[in-house]
Amino acid sequence: MSPTQVAEPTTKSVSDPASGEAAPEPPMIELENLTKTYRVGVEEIHALTGISLTICRNEYVAVMGPSGSGKSTLMNILGCLDIPGGGVYRLNGHDVSRVSQSALARIRGEQIGFVFQTFELLPRATALKNVQLPLVYGGSRHRRQLATDALRRVGLADRMAHRPNELSGGQRQRVAIARALVRHPAILLADEPTGNLDTATGNEIMALFDSLHAAGQTIIVVTHEAEVAARCQRVIRLRDGYVESDTLNEAAGQHRDRA
Ligand SMILES: Nc1ncnc2c1ncn2[C@@H]1O[C@H](COP(=O)(O)OP(=O)(O)O)[C@@H](O)[C@H]1O
Ligand SMILES: [Mg+2]
Q1: pLDDT digits over 117-153, tens only?
Q2: How many CA atoms lie within 13 A of 159 on its CB side?
Q3: What class, spelled out in words, does domain 58-81+110-248 have in CATH?
């Protein structure tokens, strides 16, 4: 079975309240010839050498590629943790490739949920406190309610008072996912989220991603594991900082209609 090359994305239409006419909804993510070069002493490392991609709302994308191919660099730029050296990144139609650090931080807080291989939880804080961390507005009762709701979504309603060392690896990653979701981000980015988990626990985490995707979440997940990528609708392979292939995964559970 050969994977299908990705077709040109279709633009969905939404109603424009000003004119009452259908206006095209911009793609969630548009990258045009994105580059990133790191300088270490006199050495230049070309981590991204020209990435052009479009990712639409509710896509479920796996990013694969050998170690050093630029996956984390790409995710950090997509997640507004870093800016590209060249090229354009449009997030929901807004160019975010040349904004200030403070603007970038605000966009990140509002639009991005990030999940890491190593969970990155505060060790002394309970699950509830960890999930409340990204919440900067609202009273304490409101924040508690939002964090409780997020923990429920990941199936941890009964572990809210536990600290990370009182939780299993899979439960820790669920707390991290709840923290990523608590502000209802447009995009959930996960950089090797199952890399520190055994196969069964990794599958549980991916089943959670599947259900978040089915509920409308846009998800981009970096993985080395074919089993993880097999759940995604689209697989982007990087090599030496460029897109080596970008394929639809016909066998994945659900497909976005590209007709
Ligand atoms: N902060 C950094 N400073 C210098 N070089 C870096 C930095 N981050 C990544 N690199 C280099 O950029 C390349 C791409 O790295 P990375 O995006 O982490 O790849 P991957 O996640 O696919 O393993 C590698 O050669 C790596 O050594
Ligand atoms: Mg990496």
Answers
A1: 999 999 999 999 999 999 988 899 999 999 999 999 9
A2: 23
A3: alpha beta
